[in-house]
Amino acid sequence: MKSSALLSGAAKAASYNMLLQLALRMTTFVLNAFILRYISKDLLGIVNVRLTLLYSTTLFLAKEAFDRACLSKSEERDWRQVINLLWCTFPIALIWCGSLGYIWLYVLDNPDSTSSITGYTAGVICYSMSTAIEVLAEPLFVVGQSFLFVKLKVVLLGISQGIKCILTVFLVLMQPQWGIINFSIAQLVSSIVYVTLYHGYFAHYILKNKKDDDFPLKSIRDMYPRIIPNKPFIDLHMASLTWSFFKQSFLKQILTEGEKYIMTFFDVLSFADQGIYDVINNLGSLAARFVFLPIEESSYLFFSQILTRGSPAHKQSQDSLRLCASVLGVLLKAVSLIGAIILVFGYSNAYLALHLYGGEILSTGSGPLLLRWYCLYVLFIAVNGTTEAFVFAAMSKEEVDKYNKKMLLFSGLFLFSSWLLTSLIGSVGFILANCLNMVARIIHSLYFISEYFHNTTYHPLYGVVPCLPVVFSLIVSLLVTSISE
């Protein structure tokens, strides 16, 4: 496959995935706003934290390493062996479903006996089964990604998730007394639809395109595992690579879902508090995902293209260095100002925003306090994203390797501080732990940038702090909105 075609396909895939993520986020946002008025805080915590964590952990452990290994380029790849290897995800998923399902049912507290919510056991079974069902589409998913079926993943996942959302709303309205069962049925149906669509699409494609010499699946039988004469059943090199990726990504999963693991295994929050925290986290992170993340990605692309990685400032083109310093200063000023505005107006309007979004289930209790602290966290996210974009573009490979080790330390401190602060002050402790983690990373980035421009006439870090008139205006706005609340 030509490089230009790969680049074009990758660009299209990235665009479609961005649209899919945006659509899923907005759909979830609207869905939560609707069903929050019909369910309890305890049910929200059990479904959105504990059961969702079971599903994401099982799916990650069963398929993530296979995805990364089998999508790696290999000139001697035999697709029959790759398909056989990918079908190994099903028995592995069953093992993880059984192991984690047992922990969720018999090691962790069972909500059936500790709250008024019923159906937890059925929920664990359904969410586990949905994982085992979904990996049945794994071989076809990898083939589709490898041959740049760019719209396929977006369309099929969009359809299955749309059905899940619609069915959840319907069941919650029609049978509210079923509780967890409503979400479990929707999850199970969504997984069945997802797998059925994948197998149906490829069966149709194979029958329609039998003369496509480049496509490895010549018949419907090729979609499934089979014995290969005079060859190992699986690609041994990819199997070894899969194990390597598993060891590498296992820690990543723990750190990515660190807050939910702490909530689930250390019992630091009630189910009601877990549910409220999850909603606030999703609501508060909208600005980070839709405003600051695109700025971070675009600025990294700009800095990485204009700077020579690993070269000190005096060895860079002076025109490029001046432009970088100017752009970095402007970006820091922009994101810090946006973050400060979110903090000022979010602090005073937290109660109103939550009441409009989710009703009394969110606006009473700890919800407004959590959102106010999250607004401060958003400010840190804004500054950290832009500073790290420059740092990662300017660092040498050796410096990046050293920073990865520091990130491991930062992540360990984050998990420990999350457990400690949450045990002491409740769900606000998670947000404070995130803030401390961001502050540590910001300090590291500011030090690197300061040293990088030390012997130059440029001072891009001056843009981090707004000018005095802006600071004064923000303080006055904070006072006025706080009084008028």
From TrEMBL:
Mode of membrane association: Multi-pass membrane protein
One CC-aspect GO term: endoplasmic reticulum membrane
GO biological process, one term: dolichol-linked oligosaccharide biosynthetic process
Subcellular location: Endoplasmic reticulum membrane
Pathway(s): Protein modification; protein glycosylation
Keywords assigned by UniProt, alphabetized: Endoplasmic reticulum, Membrane, Transmembrane, Transmembrane helix
Function text: Intramembrane glycolipid transporter that operates in the biosynthetic pathway of dolichol-linked oligosaccharides, the glycan precursors employed in protein asparagine (N)-glycosylation. The sequential addition of sugars to dolichol pyrophosphate produces dolichol-linked oligosaccharides containing fourteen sugars, including two GlcNAcs, nine mannoses and three glucoses. Once assembled, the oligosaccharide is transferred from the lipid to nascent proteins by oligosaccharyltransferases.
Family: Belongs to the RFT1 family.
Name the record gives this protein: Protein RFT1 homolog
Species of the source: Biomphalaria glabrata
Gene: LOC106058792
